[in-house]
Amino acid sequence: MICSGVRSISGPRTREKSGQCCAGCNSVDYVCGARCGLSTTLLPGGSERGRDSMTEQTAPGPGPSGARSAEQASSEPIVDAVGEVSSLQVANRQTSSLKRGLAVLELVARAGKDGVGVTEVAAQVGLDKSSASRILATLGELGYVRQDINRRYFTTPKLGKLAHRRPGVQDVAALARDRLEELHAQHDEAIHLAVVNGGEMLFLDYLQTTKAVRTEIPMVPRPIHEVAVGIAVLAAVDHDERTQLMRESMAAAGRRLGRAERVALSAQVEQAQERGWATIENNDDITRVAVALVDASGRPVGAISMSGPSYRIDPVFDRIAADTITAATDISAALRV
Predict the structure, then answer these.
(1) Cα-Cα-Cα-Cα dihedral of 35, 37, 39, 43, to 10°?
(2) I need a labelling partner for 316 at 20 to 30 A (CA). Which of 95, 218, 287, 324 fits?
């Protein structure tokens, strides 16, 4: 039986709840108002019979025409109306889920650098913990939030890339692009822009050289301590934040550093602090220079780097380093506006 509603009728029955099919077949249903797979029909005398939605027996109705078949009943316009109601219910559920997901995303974004835990999300959005956890997991799979080693959630740069340029919205790639093109025109060497994303550096932009000999560095996320732009970021934070970033970076790399590696990394960070630019030696005949980008709060949000074959970069390294520092300073100033 497919019904869109019920109306009360009197007469002997074995249960209090009752109704009459609105499709006009006069069967009395206990289950009404939806496309149910199993309903209960009152037979004459108050007895019950279970039936599925594909098979039904109608009671005699008033008028000379008598009972109508299930096929006739299902051809009534009310069937289409029921389908519309069912689709609307599904749409409403989907809209509700979207609203909850956006509410969670907005909450994580408002939490800023402190992040937010599942319990806080559940309490503030009005969800149970399992629902909040599922939504956060989905947002994480889509790349809009990340979870640190303390199980707190933060938004990622992917969210910023969706934003339009308007007052108050900082889109690092868009703000930096013109200045990076100027720097590229000065030296015609490869330039990368990357931002901090948990324990990794996420590369947002890349300007390649037009020269025949060039470096090809994959635009894939890399642990902070493994790339020059990451060393520049580590050099621009205090000891406590550096320790936290290193924990997340090693977690992203999937291994802890040995003592010799930690000593070498500390030396690289100290040199970057003294010079104002960072580099990393990978024994690949490529020279890199990276400088951090700092926002209005004084925290590094990422870094830019210039790289190329050592035989070409080394002779003019000082000028390249100075120009990269100037470009990073200009971009950082734009981030503060």
Answers:
(1) 110
(2) 218
